[in-house]
Amino acid sequence: SVTNKHRGRGGSAVYTWEEVQKHCHRSDQWLVIDRKVYNITQWAKRHPGGIRVISHFAGEDATEAFVAFHLDPNFVRKFLKPLLIGELAPTEPSQDHGKNAALVQDFQALRDRVEKEGLLRARPLFFSLYLGHILLLEALALGLLWVWGTSWSLTLLCSLMLATSQAQAGWLQHDYGHLSVCKKSVWNHKLHKFVIGHLKGASANWWNHRHFQHHAKPNIFRKDPDINSLHVFVLGDKQPVEYGIKKLKYMPYHHQHQYFFLIGPPLIVPVFFNIQIFRTMFSQRDWVDLAWAMSFYLRFFCCYYPFFGFFGSVALISFVRFLESHWFVWVTQMSHLPMEMDHERQQDWLTMQLSATCNIEQSTFNDWFSGHLNFQIEHHLFPTMPRHNYHLVAPLVRALCEKHGVPYQVKTLQKGMTDVVRSLKKSGDLWLDAYLHK
């Protein structure tokens, strides 16, 4: 309830940040967008992006995240109207937790410029050609077997081509996933289902609900599922010390930089992700995504059963997943794992994203190899921006970071990969020191 002294113009309720921040529990969630206060407690359960991603901003200012995630904020605002309960008091600042107002305003000005220059608009031809080269790789792999028959060398070559097509399809579904966050983007939404389902055998809804949490709170423990290592690894500078002080030893963490090669890149896609995907589809009764995923396996076995039989085809897809998994892990982790990891710090959007991401040098190979995720900084700042525009906005982002003293890191591809191992070793050493001496 709101007393009379908390009434603003037109009788609307007004709140302080202190009052808003109290409503950060699962059964009681408020958030602020453009100084308007919304009660999202019930709406969070129906949020198209999932309950977790919106709940991560409970008790906070969610303006920057709201703008970043929605291709058409004005379309989405109509869903917010029934949730409006008031606004911030006139004496309250627009930013919470002492955020740098000048930095927030400058980043908003940059986003306005990006929108004005059309950098958030995708070029259909770019993605059509990209999809074409993925389909061509699959057709060539199958064509080689039809023309030349099976042999160890040809099977290996086909496996490499299929792993390449799977990795590139992974980057493409990532594009369509970000470009389909608004239901008005119906074709992007359907293409996302097709690419991740029919071309990869995975679930669009599983990916959306998991990946958007990563973008909302990158490298934040308990909020970013990408750093939920299930006690297999300790990450960053703080988690190892916390585990060490508590004498937690689920694994020999001081050797994690070594066993990472045995259970990280080889298993994340073929084992961990596959289990998660099918468990999620069945538990959520997501029969549409399940049908798309099964269409992939039906097509795969129809194509390769004549050459390898049932068990040979299972071995082939397992080996392809094994190869793809290495590609996926190194590309995604070289820009995140060596960066800062912490508990919630309520930072502004730019500072939060820059502390958790770095770029890899641009080159034709790096762009293709990583699906343009060598521009992780720009991708995280503007998640709905099509990848072909990252290089255009990068100089503007770098200039803004220099103005406000925010580190903007760019590494070589080799350094990015070696830093993954170095960061694991550093974290393992921190754990061992805390475990033995504190």
From TrEMBL:
Domain Cytochrome b5 heme-binding span(s) in chain numbering: 12-89
Protein name according to UniProt: Cytochrome b5 heme-binding domain-containing protein
Origin: domain of life: Eukaryota
Membrane topology: Multi-pass membrane protein
Membrane-spanning parts: 125-148, 259-277, 297-320
Cellular component terms (Gene Ontology): membrane
Gene expressing this chain: LOC112237565
A single GO molecular function term of this UniProt record: oxidoreductase activity, acting on paired donors, with oxidation of a pair of donors resulting in the reduction of molecular oxygen to two molecules of water
Record organism: Oncorhynchus tshawytscha (Chinook salmon)
